[in-house]
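Trying the structure run again after the queue cleared.
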Amino acid sequence: MKVYHALGALRDRVVSCRRCPRLIEYISTVALNRARRYQEWTYWGKPLPGFGDPYAQLLIVGLAPAAHGGNRTGRMFTGDSSGDWLVKALYETGFANQPISTDRNDGLRLLSAYITAVVRCAPPKNKPTRQEVENCSEYLTEELRLLKRVKVVLTLGRIAFDGYLQQLDVEGDHRPKFRHGAVCKPAKGKPLLAIAYHPSRQNTQTGRLTWTMWLKVFKKIRRSLRSTCN
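Done. Tokens:
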């Protein structure tokens, strides 16, 4: 039960965080000036903690909540197209109990998976500053410390990839290259690293990331977990 309490305390710290004035102002403004299609919603409008199984073997690290996705619904990768892609893939490979993610009370339960991000507030134009990433880094550090059973870390997009490797302090010739679909060992004693493009509309609607490419990553992770657990 200790991990539940520790993650709960971390959640409270994240939600109450006010370290990045630019981001706090932005998510508050978005929450007040709701998109026309979401006029009936009361936006979350606060920093977002990670969520999922405290005993997860798969940790998924994204960039940040979406302005009208997680910032609206109160849960990462929930209520936007990126979340649709992620949760469907998790469901199809046995990491989630349902294929949809619409709001934080929709019954979604992650199975041996945990979702987090390098930045906990939606940034303008999805572009956090280096300082904003640094301000959030201790929350990811704490999650990595508490989620002791993680065997694979999946990073979604370049910023998540760089943010996670910064946690490991991997540089120089030992630093993995960003390549969609790659699975590697980034450092001795650390979980496997799986690398993927972010399932943003910019990638999925242009064909840079297809559903086949995307699902293949999760199938590869599932195979890796089976082999490491045997």
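The chain has one domain: 2-229. Worth checking whether this holds up in the mutant runs.
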